[in-house]
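Entry 12.
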Amino acid sequence: MPVNRRRFLALAMGFPAVASASVTAPASPPPVSDIVATILSHAATPRHSNELWVLIDDKEAVLSIFRGNTLIERFAPISLGTGGARTQRVRGDSTTPLGEFRVYRFNRQSKWHIFIGIDYPTPPHARMALETGIYSQADYEAYFDEYRRYGFPPQDTALGGAIGIHGIGTSDPEIHGRYHWTQGCIAVNNQQIERIASLVDVGTRVVIR
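Predicted 3D structure (tokens):
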């Protein structure tokens, strides 16, 4: 049986390690719920039969576009962040954020050929950041103040930003085909990003799991 700290102290002092109502152990903080993981558990289903939406699968390195439950196109391989993919990322860790997002902007003059921005960090990401101590209460309130003012989330907080789907620009196609190389975005080749940009629009739902 593993020896926890309380049992170790009891053994070392020659006392039996028994549970007692008279002994008050320090209260453990409640576990932080992974709100984003909960959302993801039911995100990969269409909102209605005609919804056009995007599913990005980290483990399979595949980007799929659906109309309802019907697969429209599939793009592989794709590249994600060198830091892997997680529900909670922070600025500079090169992690691709998992979650449910919406397209909110296009940049057709990007160095990555075309950049399709998604609305990371979402309110659930901000809430998790508050609960884990990445955001202070002031940070959390400032996040929503800026979101309400501009209509999209702030991109310069501790959670980072500028996450989207983009091409490779002038980067090496061979590296793209063999490695995850981005700083957190989802990359496809230049021909694929042109096709994706022709299919999706501002407001299109994007699920990264």
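Annotation: The helical segments are 5-13, 35-40, 123-132, 137-150, 173-178, 190-199. Residues 137-150 form the longest helix (14 residues).
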